[in-house]
Amino acid sequence: MHLRRFNHRGEPSYVKTDHPILVGTFDGFSWIRCVGKGSFLNSPAVKHFGDERVGAGEKRVVIDLGDCTGMDSTFMGTLAGIAARLNASGGNLEIADISERGRQSLEDLGLDCMMAILPANAPWSGRLQEIRSQLAPPRAASPLPGLKDRAKHVLDAHESLAGADPRNSGRFAGVISILREDLGGDGADESR
């Protein structure tokens, strides 16, 4: 995927985006598809759309990982955060079309207890191609966040991972400590 931009002379230039996020809303669920690697680079778009849909009262958000080549901890923490918000409101995060490696990554962090991986009898089962044909980039894609906002996002994701499973506290304590220090104490989420 390429985004058309203009340089300082007004000439078109193209910026390659290797890991796009595509989204859609359907009757009874919202869909987020990651194409390429799920990382700290594209997880803000996932969080923004997920939060928007949960805020609108959505009870089922589906994450399509069929073309996801891997996930970093920030991306998985972003999924954990959305799952926690959905679970708190009586909803559910569902994972569609995931590789065995991706499934193992989520299970290793205990995230399979927060989300339904390949749920049987989901209303979207058997409709992957139809749904994917209707997806588009997020409409209200915000500009790339500044350095402090990115650090806050990474901190939030890792705090979500640490809270998802008791084993994760030790795994991510160092990252969380460094990010909090870098943010000058501003990064701690008082609601956790």
Describe the protein:
The chain is α/β, with parallel strands linked by helices and 192 residues long. It has a domain at 19-141: Transcription Regulator spoIIAA (2-Layer Sandwich), CATH 3.30.750.24. Helix content is 40%, strand content 24%. The chain contains six helices and seven strands. The chain has a five-stranded mixed beta sheet with strand order 3-4-5-6-7. A two-stranded antiparallel ribbon has the order 1-2. Strand 3 (21-26) and strand 4 form a beta hairpin. Helix 1 (43-55) runs parallel beside helix 2 (73-88) and helix 5 (147-164) runs antiparallel to helix 6 (168-182). The longest helix has 18 residues, at 147-164.
| CATH architecture identity of the domain at 19-141 | 2-Layer Sandwich
Percentage beta strand: 15-25%
CATH fold-type name of the domain at 19-141: Transcription Regulator spoIIAA
Ranges where pLDDT stays below 50 over 5 or more residues in a row are 1-9, 11-17, 188-192
Strand arrangement across the biggest beta sheet = 3-4-5-6-7
| Order of helix and strand elements from N to C terminus | EEEEHEHEHEHHH
Query: With helices defined by DSSP (H or I, 4 residues minimum), what is the helix count?
Result: 6
Summarize this entry quickly.
This protein has 192 residues and is α/β, with parallel strands linked by helices. The protein has 6 helices and 7 strands.
